[in-house]
Design a protein that fits this description.
Blueprint (H helix, E strand, L loop, with lengths): L1 H13 L3 H14 L3 H13 L3 H8 L5 H13 L3 H8 L13 H13 L3 H14 L4 H9 L6 H4 L5 H8 L3 H12 L3 H5 L6 H20 L28 H4 L15 H6 L3 H6 L1 H33 L4 H18 L2 H21 L7 H48 L3 H8 L4 H4 L2 H13 L3 H14 L7 H10 L3 H14 L4 H13 L3 H14 L4 H13 L3 H14 L4 H13 L3 H14 L4 H13 L3 H14 L4 H13 L3 H14 L4 H13 L3 H13 L4 H23 L1
Helix pairs in contact: 1-2, 2-3, 3-4, 3-5, 4-5, 5-6, 6-7, 7-8, 8-9, 9-21, 11-21, 12-21, 14-19, 14-20, 18-19, 18-21, 19-20, 19-21, 21-22, 22-24, 24-25, 24-26, 25-26, 26-28, 27-28, 28-29, 28-30, 29-30, 30-31, 30-32, 31-32, 32-33, 33-34, 34-35, 34-36, 35-36, 36-37, 37-38, 38-39, 38-40, ...
């Protein structure tokens, strides 16, 4: 009964029938209460978006897998202290956690979210040292601005490490086989005295040990079956005692971000939060499957055929031993879920054959000969496939190297370099939603909104279900004043996932473009409610408050965004703009410089930093900053105009006039350009040209403030002529 329920629970999880899995697993644990079955129940709760339930049932459990699942539940509920205590040894916090790359990554996430940047970086780097194909760790390092070159993290030197983790070597295979040979005769020929559950549990333990050795940590997706006595092993950690909330009966804070989901929607729609946190594991599993699954399956099938033919002439003990050897081999070359299903199927065949031929027993020598033949087949298969697998690993690392270098350049805002790297990808990889979204973001940072729109539109065509970076796309359309296109994008995103923060950012930009700032602000706040760590939603809220001239709340939003992501330069820029408007130039300079240090290739940031320096009467520094901005983006007219003003201030009138003549050709309908040219002609005592340009400036309908300045300049221009006539 236990084996049957476990099999159906795993099958329900594989088929995403989460509610059915929860119900059956609750029946399983009620009938067979054990910590291993409790782990399976916790997996069902986590897959069904019930982290609270997993938290309560796993609290105080001592197995490593139980503590790992408990930490996952704590992270879903933002209980970082308890998650950290579950993942770290209690007695010595400096000791290495023996649970592989996944635990190191989770610790990095915990330290990142609790403002311990250095420790976070350390654990993300440990993750890559354990598993070089752990892309999510490298992604986090890029976001923190601390990633090494992709050639180091995904270089050829990492190929043996990947091969060791996911393939193993021939000596380890033989060592495992020799260890099993040393078992006594009572274990070898005592299969008829084992109950159904005992055999299943012993085979499950072999799977658990091999999978943990190969993958460096426990797996959430596999069928992990542990024996009750194995909790005494040194790889398991004791219950974290220092955490008061773990010992108390006080309920943890409610999971606010999940209360909007109805039960019917939970059972059908996957959890976006869990999907984001475990994306690295899914990607690694897909890569491992494409590299190793086929060869491993062929080896297992070949051996299975061999020992089934031998079973027709051998006794029941030989059948059991062949079954055990085949089970061990398949557990080395496939995932734990696949192995569990194959074990159960093969077990049924073995038990039925054992019942029919239980009277006939073979000698120990025959069993050994069969086992040696299986081992030789295993070794030859390993050697023949190792070259192909190594080539596959090299190609995968080459792909990750290119992707990593492009992503690192983009996170450092070296957008042109990132675009050049992405151009090296094959057409199959380049024409994917993720790559095209990164290309669109690169053009957005370069203020090339037309190319950004084109790249994002291609990404939408290829993967309309993908909402990553679509908040940036909505901002691109906002800057292009594409009202109808922005509305259509918002509607499409609502149909895909109305609970995604990116969707509400697009809705907010749509309202903001229509000058409905109250509705826009509500939309951005809704995005914050859905994901409080979505920094861009906080920044967009700050922008709306600034438009509404509520600077106090705008500062709060920008500061919250920086608390989530200290490298979010848009928030530093927003704070600088607020202080510039309030004429607090020293504060404005500080915040613009912070933004400039993060993104030193933004002409917009350079322009406003130069404007602040000009207000502080530091004209030479301001002129230098404007020249840098012009070099970065020669199409941006603002730095050129400011440079002309600074040259006028410094008395370099002819140089300023040359720049203004160039600007007049590019932007012929800007009144400020003609007004400044009139001022230069006035200083050169060319009053006729000065009057002409002042008149053109007035005809272009400038603002009321500029009209007053131009009229005052004209009056000062006329006074000397009247005085000459009176004389």
């Amino acid at each position: 009964m236990e084996a049957l329920l476990v099999n159906y629970v795993e099958k329900s999880l594989e088929q995403y029938m989460r509610r059915n899995a929860v119900f059956l697993c609750e029946r399983l644990y009620a009938e067979f209460p054990s910590e291993v079955n409790l782990q399976l129940l916790a997996r069902c709760y986590l897959n069904n978006n019930q982290p609270h339930s997993a938290y309560y049932i796993l609290k105080g459990m001592q197995m490593a897998q139980s503590r790992f699942l408990f930490a996952i539940a704590c992270l879903e509920m933002d209980l970082f202290c308890e998650a950290e205590a579950a993942l770290l040894p209690v007695k010595d916090l400096c000791a290495e956690v023996p649970n592989g790359a996944a635990v190191q990554y989770l610790l990095g996430i915990i330290y990142r979210d609790t403002d311990r940047k250095n420790k976070s970086i350390e654990h993300f780097r440990k993750t890559l040292s354990i598993d070089p194909m752990f892309w999510a760790a490298y992604e986090q390092l890029c976001m923190l601005g601390e990633a090494e070159e992709a050639a180091i993290c995904f270089g050829d030197a990492t190929v043996p490490c990947v091969q060791e983790h996911y393939l193993g070597n021939a000596s380890s295979c033989l060592q495992i086989a020799d260890t099993d040979h040393s078992s006594d005769s009572s274990q070898r020929f005592g299969l008829e005295y084992l109950s159904r559950s005992d055999l299943k549990q012993r085979e499950g333990n072999n799977i658990r040990v091999m999978c943990e050795n190969n993958h460096g940590g426990p797996s959430l997706t596999g069928a992990v079956r542990q024996s009750k006595n194995s909790c005494c092993s040194t790889s398991f950690l004791s219950t974290p005692s220092p955490v008061p909330t773990q010992l108390s009966d006080v309920a943890p804070p409610p999971l606010v971000r999940n209360i909007h989901l109805r039960q019917s929607e939970d059972s059908l729609r996957p959890n976006t939060q869990a999907r984001g946190k475990f994306a690295c594991d899914n990607e690694s599993a897909q890569i491992r499957g494409s590299l190793f699954f086929d060869s491993g399956l062929r080896r297992s099938a070949r051996l299975a055929v061999g020992h089934r033919s031998l079973n027709t002439s051998q006794g029941s003990e030989n059948k059991a031993k062949s079954l055990h050897a085949s089970t061990k081999l398949s557990s080395e070359t496939c995932s734990s879920t696949f192995c569990q299903g194959k074990l159960m199927e093969t077990y049924e065949v073995a038990v039925s054959e054992f019942g029919a031929t239980s009277s006939s027993l073979s000698s120990t020598a025959d069993v050994k000969s069969i086992q040696h033949e299986i081992e030789n087949t295993k070794l030859s298969s390993f050697i023949s496939d190792s070259a192909t697998i190594k080539s596959g690993i090299s190609n995968t690392m080459k792909l990750l190297r290119t992707l990593g270098e492009g992503y690192r350049h983009l996170c450092m805002f070296r957008c042109k370099e990132a675009l050049n790297v992405y151009q090296k990808l094959s057409s199959k990889q380049y024409n994917t939603g993720w790559i095209l979204s990164q290309v669109g973001k690169a053009y957005f940072e370069l203020v090339d909104y037309l190319n950004a729109d084109y790249a994002f539109s291609l990404a939408r065509q290829i993967s309309p279900y993908n909402l990553e970076e679509m908040d940036v796309y909505s901002t691109v359309l906002y800057h292009l004043k594409q009202d109808m296109k922005l509305k259509y994008l918002a509607q499409e995103m609502i149909l895909v996932d109305r609970f995604a923060p990116q969707t509400w950012c697009a809705i907010g930009n749509c309202y903001s473009l229509q000058k409905d700032h109250e509705s826009a602000l509500k939309s951005f706040q809704r995005a914050v409610q859905l994901n409080s760590r979505f920094a861009y939603a906080h920044t967009l809220s700050g922008h709306e408050y600034v438009i509404m001239e509520d600077y106090g709340k705008g500062v709060e939003c920008y500061q919250t965004s920086l608390h989530v992501d200290a490298r979010h330069y848009n928030s530093w820029y927003g704070l600088g703009m607020i202080y510039l408007c309030q004429e607090k130039f020293e504060f404005a300079e500080h915040h613009f410089r912070q933004a400039y240090q993060i993104n030193p290739l933004s002409s917009v940031i350079m322009y406003y930093l130069g404007t602040t320096l000009e207000a502080l009467k530091r004209s030479e520094e301001a002129l230098e900053m404007m020249e840098k901005a012009i070099v970065i983006d020669n199409k941006n007219p603002l730095p050129k105009y400011s440079k002309a003003k600074l040259l006028v201030t410094l008395g370099k009138l002819n140089e300023a006039l040359e720049i203004l003549e160039e600007l007049k050709e590019c932007t012929p309908r800007e009144s400020c350009i003609y007004a400044l040219m009139g001022e230069i002609y006035k200083r050169n005592k060319k009053y006729d040209k000065a009057m002409l340009h002042f008149g053109i400036a007035l005809d272009l309908k400038p603002s009321i403030v500029d009209v007053a300045k131009i009229e005052a300049a004209i009056e000062k221009l006329i006074i000397p002529d009247e005085m000459e006539e009176s004389l």
